[in-house]
Each structure stands twice: as structure tokens, then as C-alpha cells.
Amino acid sequence: MDATVTTQNVSGATVPVPMPMPASKVAARGVNVHYGAKHALKSVDIDIRENQVTAFIGPSGCGKSTFLRCINRMNDTIASCRVTGDLRLDGQDIYDRSVDVVQLRARVGMVFQKANPFPKSIFENVAYGPKIHGLATKRSEFEEIVEKSLRGAGLWEEVKDRLDDPGTGLSGGQQQRLCIARAIAVSPEVILMDEPCSALDPIATAHVEELIDGLKSDYTIVIVTHNMQQAARVSQRTAFFHLGTLVEEDDTAKIFTNPRDERTQGYITGRYG
Amino acid sequence: MNTIFLLCVLLVLSAVGYRMGKASAVGRQNGGTVRLHSLPSYYGYYVALWCGLPALLLVVLWTASSDWIVKSLVVSALPDEIRALPADKLSLVVTDIRNIAAGNIASAAATPAVQAAVDTYLNLAGMARSAMWLVGLAAAMFGLLLARSHVAPSMRARNRVEGIIGAVLIVCSVIAVLTTVGIVLSLVFEAARFFVAIPAADFLFGLTWSPQTAIRADQVGSSGAFGAVPLFTGTLLIATISMLVAVPVGLMSAVYMADYAPARVRSIAKPLLEILAGIPTVVYGFFGALTVAPFVREAGALAGLEVASQSGLAAGLVMGIMIIPFVSSLSDDVINAVPQSMRDASYGLGATRSETIKKVVLPAALPGIAASVILAFSRALGETMIVVMAAGLAANLTANPLNAVTTVTVHIAALLVGDQEFDSPKTLSAFALGLVLFAVTLALNILAMRIVRKYREQYE
Question: 3-state class of A35 per DSSP?
């Protein structure tokens, strides 16, 4: 990977940036993140490919979640956070002034570590996104979206008779799939998942992993995980982060069998992290 | 002064007891061969508590009862003709004796008999003081020595000290509870006396409030009417106006503080808002009476409306301002208690800040907000000083906020100010009003607490 953009605090405009390859959905060049005085992410370059699952792995505090949250600008909600460098979605600068965060987040959905359904009914949870984006007006249209999303998240058969029950009453795994249904209800292009299975039992985890595999034909998926078997199972590409730098990024099979960097080797064999 | 000095001496003795107990426990370790049951300091506390507490109790009891004992002794020493006086005259004589003894002005020149009584009184009071010292010090020394003789390595000093401290805490909470019970009971009994004179139905549903009753049979014009409805409606009117001011302003400022304000603004504005809660209500009162009420009247005059110079509107506005910090600070807490993950979920779906607040945060915080509003309302019902100054005393039965109205609390204050005789329904009606007010605010507070408790369970 050629770092044409240095770690200076520049936003794409002053430094020439190579256009990302057509197949890459999200392209980062020299992305730096500071939390106050802390330099959390150092000059990250990566291309995230369309309709594939990309896994971010690395020890705690290595910056993988930070980078994930840059992609839909969730870091904007943290006052001390400063993002520099060039980050593009379909060739468009995500941090450009003209970008509307609301529309960006409609295109780049997010699923969180802990399932966080709203204290509303299952139906209302899924219909929330379409409602705020005005994707539907009639009740029948909402019903259609809700059914499609819940089917997409593999939850429909389990909840179709109790759509008016509170979403918080579901089991942990069901709640997380409800959150995935909520995310895909606004038809995003990219879905970011921040350790989506870390609070789930093995069976619920298997459910969600199966779901992720099925979703990749329609969505570009980026998943942060601490579980290396999970990364190996669900992803096509894997990126290893360490101490705020992206150490290497390659085909998942290659990372797990023949990594280039010895730090990656050390992490996947369990020597640290 | 004397008693305070004695208390200081007891404190010093307890400190000495602490040192002695600790030293004694350490000494009995035999240089580490014998294991103490508790840390040495617990033996110290044990001795100190035994030294201080019983003596303190005795001194308190002595102070409380010695005056009564001295008085009865003095009275029994008075000549027969004085002791044969009726009770109220006799108590006047006793008061005189006391006043002369204290060097104050007495109601009549001292007769030789009274002068003798004064001497007895001074004599006995002096003796009582010396006896208090004697009793207190003896008790302290006795407790100290007794407790110290108990100190032994096998004694469970820690458990005993914990037991004593537990007992002290129980006594303190019992005092608080009993005081409350006493206040409620006095309300109930005095109100019951009122309801003997005036039927409860007349009080609760009567439409005229005019508590002046005739003192003499030939007095005219003061028949007395105890229909409390005008007071209830006035209270409700003013409280409602104040809620109309406080709830929107308080809630929105809470939303701003919790979700919009940058950390720096929040750190300045939140304490500032809470200072509002620290302003004495009497200050709000003259702000209401001297600034807001005339302003409301003149604004009304400009609009062609007739506004009383002490209008319900003015009082309600000022009270609303007073209650803003209540609503905002309680609501701020519940809004902050909505987990960040809810907000993240909403932002992650592309919701704007106001959509997130409207559709996620406020619905989730609603029970807590409702509870804070109810608490604020019960505070508004009980508030007195502002309405005394800004609303006035006219018990009009009206729903028009531009007229003068008055509240339950204002009338309680008015009824009990100045010289009162406790056998007239006029004075007793204050207790009936207080009872109603107490019942209503108690019910509101219980309701609010229930809502809060239910809400807490939701996120645990």
C-alpha cells in the first residue's frame, strides 16, 4: 500500500490522492484520529471491497473500533475527537463539508456491540429508520419494509405473531438480529458491525454469523471482532490493527495461514492481545 | 454555658477513655503472645462510648427534668395563701419568681414571700447545677472504669462497638420518624376538633371562606363561613399557572443541558440554574409583589384588561420561575440516565439530534419526567411565601387568573399569625387546611415515587 498522504493534518484538498480502485466501496488514505492529545489512529490506508465481509482484528485499544466509527462519522458525537486524512465512500469524501451526516448514515448502517433495541415495539424498532428518512408513508408500506427487514435478519418467523411486543423483551441473540433488521430497513450499502456477537451465547452467535454470510450479497460488511475464529469463519478480507496502526490487510485465508508481518503472526497465534 | 462546659469535659473524658481502653488492650497482648479479638482501637472506642454515652443521657435527662423539680419544690415552699390561688394566678407568681431570679422585670413588686421563694429558687437551681456536674462526672467515671475492667483479649470489642453504634443510629432515625408522626397526629387531632364545630362536608364543599367568627355574643357581621373550595381552587389555579411556566422551560433546559450543551457551557449553566433553587422564597416573594405583579397589571391595562394588583397570574408566574430548577434538575438526571447506546442506535440510523430526543430519549425518560413534574406540582401546592406576598388574601372563587385569588397555605399562615385562641373554629380551621394539604402532597409524592421505582426497573 502506497502512502501518498503523510500524517500531516490535511484534508484531501491540498494533497493529491490516488483514486480508489473501482471495486473498493470505502477507501482510506492517511486517516488519522486524535482523541484530545491521544493519537488513536495513525495514517491508515485501506480499501474495503464491495459485497465482501471485511474483518478488523487486533488487541483492545488498537483503534479498530475507532476506524469503524469513522466510516459513518459516529465519532462526530465525541467532542474531543478529530479525524484527518482522506476517507471516501464510492469516491466521495465522507468528511467533506457538503456531506450530510444524516444521508451518510442512511447509506452506512451500524450494529453495536451490545444489542440496543429502543424501548418500543418490535415493529416500531424496525420502522424507526424508514420513518425518519421518509422511506414510507402508508401503514402497508411500513409493514412491507418491516417484514422484508425481519426476514433479511432471519427473525421474521420468530416474531411475526408478536410485532407489537416490546423489542427489549426478546432474547439477547434475537435483540441483536432485531438491531440488524433495524439497520437494513433503511437499505444501506455498507453495514458496520462493532463486535456484534461479543455479548451472545454460541448458538446465537452461530445464527448471527450465518446471517452475516447471507447479507454480503446485498451489502458491504465491515465487522470488528475479538474472536479470530469468527473472523476466519465470516470474512473474506481481514485487517490487523495494532497500537493505532493498520499492520496488514489481505485475504483472510492468507492472514491466518501466512501473514507477512510478525506482529500479525504473534497475535493470531495468541502470543499477545 | 454551664452545660456546654460539662459536655466538653465529658468529651475530654471519653477521649481519655479511648486512650486507656486502647492502651489496656495493647498491654494485655503480653507482647504479642495473646491474640486480641479486635483491633486495639475498638477497645478504645468501647471504653469511650461507655464513658460518654450514659453520662450524656443522664445530663440530658437532668437538664430536662431539673427545672420542673425545682419549680415544684419552690411552689411547695410557698405560703399557703399563695398556693391556694387558682392555677393561672399561681403560674403568674411562678413566672414572676423566675423573672426576678433571672434579673428581668416582674409583673408586680416582690412581696416578702415571693422574695423568699426567689432565694429558694436561686439556691435550688444552683444545687441542681452542681448536682448535674456531680452526676455527669460520676456516671462518666463509673462507665469508664467499668468498661475498662471488661477489656480482655477475648472480649468481642468490635461487635459490641458496632452494636452500640447501631443502637445510636436507630435512636436517631426513631426521633425523626416519631417527630413526623407527632406532627401528623397533632394535625389530625386539631383538625378533628375543628370538624366537631364545623361539619366536614361544609368545609370541603362550601363555597364561601370567611373565617372571622364572633367573639362576643353582641358582635355583628362575623358569622364565620368555612367553605374551603375558594382556597382549593385558588391553590390549583396558581399551581397550574406555575407548572405551565416551569414544565416547558425546565424540560427544555434539561434537554439542552443533557444533549446539546457543550461540556463547558454545561459546567457553567447547570450550577447557575441550580442557584435559582437556592434563592429564598421570600426574595421571590418581593420580586413577585414589587416587580411582576405591577408589570402584569400594566400589561393587562395596555391590552384593555382589568387586572387585580395582586393577581393569581403574577403569583403563578413567579412560582413557576422558582420551580424551574426542580423540573430541570430532576429531568436532567433522568434524561442522562437514558443509556448512551439508545442515542447511538438512533444516530447510527441517521436520525438528527432533535429526532433522537423526540422519538427515543424523551419517550424512554417519560416516566421519570412525569415523576419530576408531580414532585414539582406538590412543591407548588405547598409553597407559601411567594403567594403570601404576591397573591394576597382575597378568597375569590374564580378561574380567571387576572383576579386576586388566594391559597390554602396563605390562609394557614394568616390564621396562625398573631394572638390566637385555640378554642375557636377560626384557628382550628388552619389545621384542617393543613391536613388536606398534607394528604394531597403525600399522595402526589407517593405517586411520583412509584413511577420512579417502576422506571428504574426498566434499565436494570
Answer: strand
- Using the Cβ of A167 and the Cβ atoms of chain B, whether some distance falls under 8 Å is answered with no
Cα A263 from Cα A249, distance rounded (Å): 13
Say if the Cβ atoms of B364 and A119 lie within 8 Å.
Answer: yes
Angle formed by the axes of helices A139-152 and A122-132, nearest 10°: 110
Interface pTM, i.e. ipTM = 0.83
CB contact under 8 A, B346 and A128: yes
Helices B112-150 and B40-77 pack at an angle, to 10 degrees, of 160
Complete DSSP assignment for B152-192: -TTS-HHHHHHHHHHHHHHHHHHHHHHHHHHHHHHHHHHHH
Residues of chain B with pLDDT below 70 are: 1, 213-223, 455-460
Q: Which helix (H) or strand (E) holds B89?
A: helix B87-102
Of B367, B377, B382, the residue nearest B245 (C-alpha): B377
Between residues 99 and 138 of chain B, which touch chain A (CB distance below 8 Å)? none
CA distance B116 to B381: 56
Q: Count CB neighbours of A100 within 10 A.
A: 10
> Of A248 and B224, which is predicted with more confidence?
A248
Q: Please give the single-letter amino acid code of residue A1.
A: M
- Within the 177-206 window of chain B, which residues sit less than 8 Å (CB to CB) from chain A? none
Strands A190-194 and A108-111: parallel
User: Least CB-CB distance to A132: which of B263, B345, B351?
Assistant: B351
Does the pLDDT of residue A21 top 70, yes or no? no
CB B121 within 8 A of CB B69: no
CB within 8 Å: A74 and B342: no
Helix, strand or coil, per DSSP, at residue A154: coil
Q: Which of B259, B344, B349 to mutate to test the interface with A (most CBs of A within 10 A)?
A: B349
Domain range summary for chain B, segments of one domain joined by +: 2-155, 225-458
Indicate the CATH number for domain B225-458.
Answer: 1.10.3720.10
Over residues A104-150, the pLDDT tens digits come to 999 999 999 889 999 889 999 999 999 999 988 899 999 999 999 99
Q: Is the dihedral of CA B350, B354, B355, B356 positive or negative?
A: positive
What local confidence, expressed as pLDDT, does residue B221 receive? 56
Other beta carbons within 10 Å of A53: 26
Given an 8 Å threshold on Cβ–Cβ distance, is B348 in contact with A120?
no
Q: Which amino acid is at B298?
A: E
Predicted confidence (pLDDT) per residue in B393-408, tens digit = 888 888 888 888 888 8
Residue B306's region, left for phi above 0, alpha for psi from -120 to 50, else beta, is: beta
In this structure, are residues A219 and A184 in contact, taking their beta carbons and an 8 Å threshold? yes
Tell me which residue of A150, A153, A149, A71 sits closest to A108, measured CA to CA. A71
Q: Please tell me the CATH superfamily of domain A24-268, with its number.
A: P-loop containing nucleotide triphosphate hydrolases (3.40.50.300)
Candidates A74, A118, A131, partner chain B, best to mutate (most B CBs within 10 A): A118
- The three-class DSSP label of residue A89 is strand
